[in-house]
Design brief:
about 130 residues, 6 strands, 6-stranded mixed sheet, alpha+beta, globular, Nuclear Transport Factor 2, Chain: A, about 40% strand, single chain, 4 helices
């Protein structure tokens, strides 16, 4: 019996995940953190892991973004490089990518791993590890 494609998702699901990331990128580049945050599950169980360790919760993650990236100069222009989108089951996906910020004074960059979950028909990030 062939088990190829047990977790294979439609092109539509992969595109939906890529669309979430593109909406986030565009919102970031407009300085719109509230729209950027719509890509995350709006829950206390959201887990964000960055250089200062784990943060739980949507509001706390938003607050940290606001504190760390102040104004257009602090936010800069964001680009993503998506390396991999793997479906772990029909409602959970793993994404590996790179991020790059172009700012007037510097160009920080790094990598991220994301876990997406399909909730009520929408793909949302519920774990983000960015470094």
């Amino acid at each position: 019996m062939c088990s190829v494609g047990v977790f294979a998702q439609s092109v539509k699901d992969k595109q939906s995940i890529l669309n979430v990331l593109e909406i986030q990128r565009l919102a970031w580049n407009k300085g719109d953190l509230e729209t950027f945050m719509q890509g995350y599950v709006k829950s206390d169980s959201l887990l964000f892991v960055g250089s200062s360790g784990p943060t739980y919760g949507w509001q706390k993650t938003l607050d940290n973004y606001k504190k760390t990236y102040q104004g257009a100069a602090g936010m800069g222009q964001l680009t993503f490089g998506i390396k991999k989108v793997d479906f772990l089951n029909k409602d959970v996906a793993f994404v590996l990518g790179s991020w790059h910020l172009k700012r007037e004074k510097d160009e920080p960059q790094g990598y991220f791993t994301l876990l997406f979950k399909k909730l009520n028909g929408e793909w949302k990030i519920f774990v983000d590890h960015s470094s």
